[in-house]
Design goal:
Chain A: Belongs to the binding-protein-dependent transport system permease family. CysTW subfamily. The complex is a heterodimer of chains A (266) and B (308). With 266 residues, chain A is mainly α. Chain A contains eleven helices and no strands. Chain B has a single domain, classed as MetI-like (MetI-like fold, Orthogonal Bundle). The chains are: A mainly alpha (266), B mainly alpha (308).
């Protein structure tokens, strides 16, 4: 191996790690500044170490209310989008029907549209119908834009499924309902779970569409946006850090469990 | 429109085999009905309403009527064309930066990471778990005036070059185009890395060995084998970055100034603050049309010429 070759190999690693650092730097800042004790209204400059915000995460009025609201909306949106999206995915993979191209476009377009366009057009619909903006309009919007992502996730899983498994179940005298519940659904479950997780993450973190269709209702991202104009409490960093730690821990635990299961099978 | 559907934005799917005919002629329609109805009423119908709103005249107090006042489009364009141009420029710059930054990392995960692969993958996705607004606000700290990053860039005379190019102003980075592009790049980088990784990971390592056996230098292998084979990832990655970046107004608002307003900022303020619905609807409609045209052209081009 020549020197140039060696350097080239290192170059990719160095450049890749630089990008990783670029991606993670803001998270480091968010975590560090959750221990800050800022002087003014904004938490952008380091002053001194303090754990005050961690001891009182709900100490800012409206913060935890908005968090609860976001969780509620995300749960309902996940439920709705996963249900509707899974049905569509099964229809797309398992059945022939007319206007397949049109159906595919209708599912693809929401993912190919800038959020602000979807947000603005949905607002014109609500304005024209005279709907009151709030919880329900946010939920409707979230189910709408999460749906397509669920379809993609579930479709990928169902498509890779061996149809002979279901035939085998039927040969063994399982009825259609039994086949679906005991064979089809367990196999499709990882795809459905992935779609649901994606929907939850998208809904929970959505700002642009919510910003347009929320009226005076304040979700967690809306709260952060508002605080960026009025003054950022340290508590939003605490929430951000806690979310990050909990999510990474969950991923690591599920990976460890998965590894152990695989090892036992092997 | 059909060309758009041919290239899914996520992992490029294999060609779909026509599913077998099954019993129950109405079953597929019943399965599709609720979801498609939802998309028709809350995605497709709003586009029609938006088109209608854009040709209405009136006022908030007296109500709006459809008067086919198409001039709104002309007025909106002539007043806000700088914001349109800026949106495309910023989004394009961010997309190029995402590709330059994201490719090495995707390559690293696919070919060089070994047992670290899963960990790096988690680290790429992990930032998503913290609200993107909070993370974008962190850039205010990172790029703060007189902070270490700005100081280093200043000492290396990078700021002189960027100031000369008009990307920064004086010794500030915050509230300049550079800060906005930096934020856009940061926010959409994972959307570039994941499709790149998916298509790189599919490459048969034996192709690399074969190229090596045929006396190709590593750079030639990359140019003639790896990069062409990763084109599907490049195409979906650039689309997944460019489209949302064009419509974004969060980065321009939090990290920019009034001189860096993008078209999303205009649509947002016209809709939610100025309450000039026809102008806002017209702008949003133009943005939608522009994106669809650009994406269609791009897919055609990358699908026929560059992919060969």
């Amino acid at each position: 191996m020549t020197f140039v070759n060696w350097l080239k190999r290192r170059l990719v690693v160095v450049a890749g790690l630089f990008t990783l650092a670029y991606l993670l730097l803001p998270n480091v800042i968010v975590t560090v500044f959750s221990f800050n004790d800022p002087k003014g209204r904004f938490n952008y400059e380091w002053q001194e170490f303090s754990t005050e915000a961690w001891r009182d995460p709900c100490g800012v009025s409206g913060l935890c209310g908005s968090l609860t609201l976001s969780l509620q909306i995300a749960l309902w949106a996940t439920l709705g989008a996963t249900l509707l999206g899974t049905l569509i995915a099964f229809a797309l993979v398992r059945y022939r029907f007319r206007a397949r191209g049109a159906v595919n476009s209708l599912i693809f377009l929401p993912m190919a549209m800038p959020e602000v366009v979807m947000a603005a057009s949905l607002l014109t619909l609500f304005l024209n119908m005279g709907a009151r903006l709030g919880f329900w309009t946010i939920l409707i919007a979230h189910i709408m834009f999460c749906l397509s992502f669920v379809v993609v996730a579930v479709k990928a899983r169902v498509m890779s499924m061996d149809p002979r498994l279901e035939q085998a179940a039927q040969d063994l005298y399982a009825g259609p309902v039994q086949t679906f519940l005991r064979v089809t659904l367990p196999i499709a479950a990882p795809g459905i779970a992935a779609g649901a997780l994606l929907a939850f993450a998208l809904s929970f973190d959505d700002f642009i569409i919510t910003n347009f269709n929320a009226g005076s209702t304040v979700t967690f991202p809306m709260f952060v946006w508002g605080s960026a104009q009025r003054g950022t409490p340290v508590q939003i960093n605490v929430i951000g850090t806690a979310m990050f730690v909990v999510a990474v821990a969950l991923v690591l635990v599920s990976m460890a469990v998965g590894n152990r299961r695989n090892r036992r099978k092997a | 429109m059909t060309t758009v559907t041919e290239a899914p934005p996520l992992a490029p799917a294999p060609p779909e085999p026509e599913p077998p005919r099954r019993r129950g002629r109405w079953t597929p329609y019943l399965l599709l009905l609720p979801g498609l109805l939802w998309l028709l009423v809350f995605f497709a119908l709003p586009v029609v309403y938006q088109a209608s709103t854009s040709v209405q005249t009136g006022s908030l107090e007296e109500g709006y009527q459809v008067t086919w006042h198409v001039a709104t489009y002309w007025e909106a364009l002539s007043e806000y064309w700088p914001q349109f141009v800026r949106s495309v420029l910023y989004a394009a710059s961010a997309t190029v930066l995402c590709l330059l930054l994201g490719y090495p990392l995707a390559y690293l995960i696919a070919f060089r990471a070994g047992r670290w692969r899963n960990l790096i993958m988690i680290l790429v996705i992990a930032p998503f778990f913290t609200s993107f607004l909070i993370r974008t606000l962190a850039w205010k700290t990172i790029l703060a005036d007189g902070g270490p990053v700005v100081g280093a860039l200043d000492a290396l005379h990078v700021l002189d070059v960027t100031a000369w190019l008009g990307w920064t102003a004086g010794d500030r980075v915050l509230a300049t185009p550079l800060a906005v592009v930096c934020g856009l790049t940061y926010n959409f980088l994972p959307f570039m890395i994941l499709p790149l990784y998916t298509s790189l990971e599919r490459i048969d390592p034996r192709l690399h060995e074969a190229a090596n056996d045929l006396y190709a230098r590593p750079s030639t292998t990359f140019r003639k084998v790896t990069f062409p084979l990763s084109m599907p990832g490049v195409v979906s990655g650039t689309l997944l970055t460019f489209i949302p970046a064009t419509g974004d107004y969060v980065n321009a608002d939090l990290l920019g100034s009034t001189d860096t307003r993008m078209v999303g900022n205009v649509i947002q303020s016209q809709f939610l603050r100025v309450l000039d619905y026809p102008t806002a609807a017209a702008l949003s409609f133009i943005l939608m049309a522009a994106i669809l045209i650009m994406v269609t052209l791009y897919i055609r081009k990358s699908g026929t010429e560059d992919l060969v």
